[in-house]
Amino acid sequence: MSPSALRIPSAKDIDPDWLTACLRQRGYDVQVGSFQAARVGTGQIGMCVRYALHYTSGEGPISLVGKFPSDDPGSRHTGVVLQNFLKEVRFYQTLQPHLSIRTPRCYFSEIQDQGPTFFLLLEDLAPSLQGDQLSGCTGQVAERALSELVGLHAPSWSDERLKTLDWLHGAKAEAGLAQDLYQAQMPGFIARFGQQLDADEIALIREYGAAQDALRDLGLPEFFSIIHGDYRLDNLLIGGPSETPSVTAVDWQTVALGNPLTDVAYFVGAGLTPEVRRPIELNLVQGYHQGLVEAGVRGFSWDACWRSYRLGAFAGITVAVIAAMLVQRTERGDRMFLTMAKRHARHALDLRATELLP
Fold this sequence. Notes:
The protein has about 350 residues and is an alpha+beta fold. Helix content is about 45%, strand content about 15%. It is built from twelve helices and ten strands. It has helices spanning about 15-25, 75-80, 85-95, 140-155, 170-195, 200-210, 210-215, 260-270, 275-295, 300-310, 315-325, 330-350; strands at about 30-40, 45-55, 65-70, 105-110, 120-125, 130, 225, 235-240, 245-250, 255-260. The strands form three sheets. A five-stranded antiparallel sheet has the order 1-2-3-5-4. Strands 6-8-9 form a three-stranded antiparallel sheet, covered by helices on one side. A two-stranded antiparallel sheet has the order 7-10. Helix 11 runs antiparallel to helix 12 (about 330-350). About 45% of the residues are buried.
């Protein structure tokens, strides 16, 4: 029997019998007697619950993390429209086994249609801690995070077979939706956050908005790969010593095909404060490019890499503007989206990325 033969549970449906059946289908000879549940994480579209398990027989994982749709109706609607729920479930079902990026082991993954009904049961990576988007990270964490991206991008580099996965590759349709959403939400975003943005940051956000119609027709670049699409500190679990940290990527709700350097620029632009970023940025991107070469990627020059990286600086602005206006509003969410917008805009300005807009 496959795990999908189990019903898709809601949070209130999870009980010892369901967990026992799920673990047995994964090869564990166990009986779950009881568990404690507690909310974890700061997700805007998904809701995560940690289950501390107690067994009456056998040995299995001490704890697991279950992921459900948000209990906010607006966020649930966004998750369906943008296919966030479908993408994450399909990632664990079809893509994870073929990649070398560190991700949690998946014990259950199923969805009804495109959602919002879905459930994921994942490895609990405690004591690793969720990164803090507001505080930023060290250069060591950034270097490790980009090294992990090589394990996502290199195995899928320009693989034409991936274009047959409709949920992964709706390049023009998805790009058009994102561009429409950006143009529709940008005025409200500026109205909400404009007093806290610098004048040149607002000008760049508007200039990028004016380029959306031209960007709509670009499609996939010559060099493409699977991209995470929201590769930032809040979606990374960080463990180990500070000198040699480990990084594990979670929240695969925005996985797609695209320019791999958008993941790199998105992480660097949001995860490092400008003062930390500027002196180490070039070395970080060069290290990522060298990692691709060592992983077998051919024909992707350093000049092409750096140009793609500069253009990728706009990815974070897109996410900040759209997500801020479509998900449930919270105090931390407002601080996070404002921080993202300011850092990404400053990043694009530092890189003179508007020179590359069509």
